Amino acid sequence: MRAIAIKMLFGDSAKFYGILLGLAFATLLIAQQASIFVGLMSRTYALIEETPQADLWVTDPTMLFVDDTKPMQVTALQRVRSVGGVKWAVPMFKSLLVAKLPSGARQLCDVVGVDDASLIGAPAKMVQGDTSVLRRPDTIIIETRGARTRLAQPLNPADPAGPKRPIEVGEELELNEKRAVIGGIAETKPTFQAVPTIYTTYSRAIGFSPANRRTLSMILVKADSPEEIPALRARIERETGLAVYTPRDFAWKTIDFWMKQTGIPINFGIAIALGFLVGVAIAGQMFYNFTLDNLKYFGAMKAMGATTPALLGLVALQGAVAGALGLGLGLGVTSFVGLSIPEDKLAFKMTWHIPVIAAGAVIFIVVAASSFSMRKVAKLDPAEVFQG
Amino acid sequence: MTAAGASISCRGITKTFGSGDATVRALRGVDLEARYGEVMALVGPSGCGKTTLISILAGLLQRDKGDLSVLGDDPSLMSSHQRTQWRGRNVGFIFQQFNLIPQVSVVENVAVPLLLQGTRRREALERSAALLAEVGLRGREQSRPNKLSGGQQQRVAIARALVSNPRLLVCDEPTSALDGATGQRVMGLIRDIATHGERVVVLVTHDERIYHFADRIAHLDDGMVTHVSTPAEALAESAARMGDAAGRR
């Protein structure tokens, strides 16, 4: 009877495609919005992911998230280095600065200054040149997205609004009226702020920024031993009064800020809830109507000797097949859209949780719709088959 | 007590629906017997209790009072689950509107009772195809029901009703959705193949043109069997009633 139940489902093509598209659309909305949300959130801590060498990040205690730099006194670096169990501690500068481009246009950039000696914090994946170019005077490294987009230069200098070409190694920018020569181009993860990132040395970055008594944005720390990281964290906090985070905690602190202090989760939550409601309204209703349409056949089967559990099994099978196909189609379209649009145009990150959540939503929709349908089938009086 | 050779025996069967002011006494004490190999037609005006009676005989409804024996059992004494299984083993149904599942092929429709009883799909389809050939639908096994004429659909329904070889076949207005000639052919088919072996056919109809396919006709009125006649007697009574009515006009 299972084959007949499935043929009944597929055979009513108008309702089947309605159910399928309803579930697929619900899955698409839920999975795509959730993936974009996760993609956006993961961009907020891109700098942390780009700096895997650090076991601990030391910041001003009032810092709320990774871009909320609250500069510390430079002496903080020595205090941290003096704590027992620290293998090394290096400074990092991070600030938004306006760059003057070769065309004369101005562009806000995220300037990251890494340790002059070790270059810890410099981008790991270089497309042109290598990080050692930072040892040359006035040199900076830019990233590919910025080079292609915000830092791109007009092909015809007389027509700044015309077609553009990527800015190239060897070209010069001005940062705070100081010369900055592009020495290399790196491939980095997109950031939430979507402004070009410029890497240079710590001391040069301070020179690029307006004069400030406090210049130390963050301190990157390596522990003597990985096992001692929790103890070292507590020790640095105790002895310096600064905030200390593991990369994971720092990332979650950043996500937490965006979740609680902005309307982003509510907006995405509404879209996801709408997807769920679309699923309930369209697919649930259509599945229920599909069962109602077939009620006389279920009634005939009941008269011919089908037990109620057997009929409920057929309804459950129809619901499960529709749910699995709708979920698969929805996730397939979501993945296709997510993977076919470049990363710098769409923040898309489908973690394993998202298909599980979408599957949970589809299961809920199908179970709810099937329950109403099953109730109708269970209460069906086989004598009704003679009622015309 | 069941009379010798009787497959159905009803004595004083009553059935009431609803309660209080809404009480409907559908059957008020039905006495009826039918034998194996017999086609018994139930006739009477709308609301006389025909459908209630075949529903009780087929184990779809439970009687309130009276003695009932259908194929040696009283389905009204069985639990709901037992009655369902009993129907699956013993009763074939032919419905007024065929009730063929439109999304599946003709042969699969016929196989439904066997599949419900757990027969292997291949065997069920083979037996169904053989029966379709018997009702004159060889070559139409894979057609959808909506591609067939009304008469062909009712033949499919006949095959479905007989595929599990039931001993009781209940037919609810089997010709009401068919034109006169097709109805005659369908009833001829039921008469020919349904009465083979140890089987009884109970038929509800308003269609006097098919009376002659029945062996006996039970006349119901107001929830009781008023009398049982031969088809010829029933037609004569009907003609007399029509003559009386014409005379009064």
Q: Provide the β-strand percentage band of chain B.
A: 15-25%
Q: Which band does the percent of strand residues of chain A land in?
A: 15-25%
Fourth-tier CATH superfamily name of chain B = P-loop containing nucleotide triphosphate hydrolases
What is the share of helical residues of chain B?
25-40%
Strand line-up across the major sheet of chain A: 2-3-10-5-9-8
Second rung of CATH, namely the architecture of chain B: 3-Layer(aba) Sandwich
Intertermini distance of chain A: 25 Å
Order of helices and strands of chain B: EEEHEHEHHHEHEEEH
The string of secondary-structure elements of chain A, in order, is HHHEHEEEEHEEEEEHEHEHHHHH
How many structurally independent domains of chain A? 2
Mind describing the biggest β-sheet of chain A?
Answer: 6 strands, mixed, barrel
Quaternary organisation:
heterodimer
Q: Under the CATH scheme, which class of chain B? A: Alpha Beta
Q: Which sequence of strands runs across the widest sheet of chain B?
A: 5-6-7-3-8-9
**Overall shape of chain B:** globular
Instruction: Report the structural category of chain B.
Output: alpha/beta
Q: Gap between N and C termini of chain B, in Å? A: 47 Å
Largest sheet of chain B: 6 strands, mixed
Number of strands of chain A: 12
Structure overview:
The complex is a heterodimer of chains A (388) and B (249). Chain A has two domains: 2-43 and 263-387, no CATH class; 56-245, no CATH class. Helix content of chain A is 49%, strand content 17%. Chain A has twelve helices and twelve strands. Chain A is elongated and about 95 Å long. The mean pLDDT of chain A is 89. With 249 residues, chain B is an alpha/beta fold. Chain B has a single domain (6-248), classed as P-loop containing nucleotide triphosphate hydrolases (Rossmann fold, 3-Layer(aba) Sandwich). Chain B is built from seven helices and nine strands. At the A-B interface, helix 1 and helix 10 of A face helix 1, helix 2 and helix 3 of B.
